[in-house]
Write a structure and sequence with these properties.
Layout: E1 6-11, H1 15-24, E2 30-35, H2 38-47, E3 52-55, H3 64-73, E4 82-86, H4 91-100, E5 104-107, H5 112-182, H6 188-227, E6 232-235, H7 236-246, H8 248-251, E7 257-260, E8 267-270, H9 272-290, E9 298-306, E10 309-316, H10 323-326, H11 346-357, E11 361-366, E12 372-379
Protein name: histidine kinase
Keywords: Kinase, Phosphoprotein, Transferase
EC number: 2.7.13.3
Length: about 375
């Protein structure tokens, strides 16, 4: 038996057709589930998403066209390939099915070799697309972490330089006071001045150590979260402070302001790595696109809870996005900054992270000249 069995869902109101397809498919190669109603199929997909769906068109109640339409409208499941297995093979029927998002067609009565060939082809494409998606996300993570590493190194150098200066100054003072003490020329005022200088030097050292520690801790928290797939308890206000601090080096290059208005008591149980990617990408998009030509912009992040969900609201007061561009921003690789640091991955990955990884919803609105708003609705406790 192979190490991984591709999961196939058969949806057909006729049990005889289901039995036929089951016999065609190799039980050692595929893990097969079957239902006879479209409504039940959608519920099963939500519970356990398959790798492929073999879908009849003519069914009582919800037909195959409607099942396919609802699947393709849901970003969590739109990537699942759907093969219509149907007697409706007229040109207009096939065209309509493809317009709904079908990946392929198998005409009834189904033939074994055709079923195996088309199923195998779609599963290969599906797994290849999933690998490409994972690689894109990993590439983006590594790019973000690389940028953070460079920024943190630069930022930590400043407090370490201050620390070195303070220690050198303190050592010089100690040498001088020791010489005066040995020469018995040390006055009470000079000793009192020495004590004050040492206190100032120690305070400077402490400030530098605290800053360096905070910078390293912020990077550690964000980096570990992005490199793991573990859920964790998140204090949202402090989490955002850590993310913003981890971007300190980049943010210092701009005059823009980030206001964290999230209530300190809000907590959620979720994937902090995915959430940090969302926030970082939103901020990067504002810096790169939203504040172009603006002297000083403002980013505001707020949140509120309702029932068992949280609504995280991200706003900037930048140039906004025209209606014609707004409909394209979630497309893979779409960017208006192809040669200026825009990968075209940001907004598409934000949507994917929110709706797939974080099991939430993303609403993105904008008007040209009036900034953007991203409203992210997330469960307080991820299932």
């Amino acid at each position: 038996m192979s190490e991984y069995q591709s999961q196939i869902l058969i949806v057909d109101d006729n049990p005889t057709n289901i039995d036929l397809l089951r016999r065609f498919l190799d039980d050692d190669k595929y893990k097969i589930a079957a239902v006879t109603r479209g409504e039940v199929a959608l519920k099963l997909v939500e519970k356990s998403p398959p790798d492929l769906i073999l879908l009849d068109v003519m069914m009582p109640g919800m037909d195959g066209y409607e099942v396919c339409r609802q699947l393709k409208e849901n970003m969590q499941f739109e990537h699942i390939p759907v093969i219509f297995v149907t007697a409706k093979t007229a040109a207009e029927d096939i065209k309509f099915g493809f317009q709904l998002g079908a990946a392929d067609y198998i005409g009834k009565p189904a033939q074994r070799e055709e079923v195996l060939s088309r199923v195998d082809n779609q599963l290969k494409l599906f797994h290849q697309q999933m690998m490409e998606r994972e690689l894109r996300q990993k590439s983006l993570k590594m790019a973000e972490l690389g940028e953070m590493v460079a920024g943190i190194v630069h930022e930590v150098n400043n407090p370490l330089g201050n620390l070195k200066t303070a220690i050198s100054f303190s050592q010089h003072n100690v040498d001088e006071i020791q010489q005066q003490w040995q020469a018995q020329t040390l006055t009470q005022n000079e000793f009192a001045q020495f004590i004050d200088q040492q206190k100032e030097a120690l305070e400077s050292c402490q400030v530098s150590i605290d800053l360096a520690s905070s910078l390293i801790q912020s990077f550690k928290q964000v980096a570990v979260g992005q490199c793991s797939n573990q859920k964790s308890k998140i204090s949202l206000y402090h989490f955002l402070e850590q993310v913003i601090l981890s971007m300190r080096a980049k943010l210092k290059k701009y005059p823009h302001v980030i206001e964290n208005k999230v209530p300190w008591e809000i907590e959620l149980d979720s994937y902090d790595g995915a959430l940090s990617q969302v926030v970082i990408n939103l901020i990067n998009n504002s810096l790169l696109h939203g504040f172009e030509g603006i002297d000083q912009g403002c980013i505001e992040i707020s949140a509120e809870t309702f029932d068992d969900h949280i609504k995280l609201i991200y706003r900037d007061d930048g140039v906004g996005i025209s209606e014609s561009l707004l409909v394209k921003i979630f497309a893979d690789f779409y960017t208006t900054k192809q040669n200026q640091g825009g990968s075209g991955l940001g907004m598409g990955i934000i949507k994917s992270l929110v709706e797939v990884d974080l099991q939430g919803q993303l609403e993105f609105t904008s008007q040209q000249g009036r900034g953007v708003q991203a409203t992210i609705t997330l469960p307080l406790t991820l299932k």
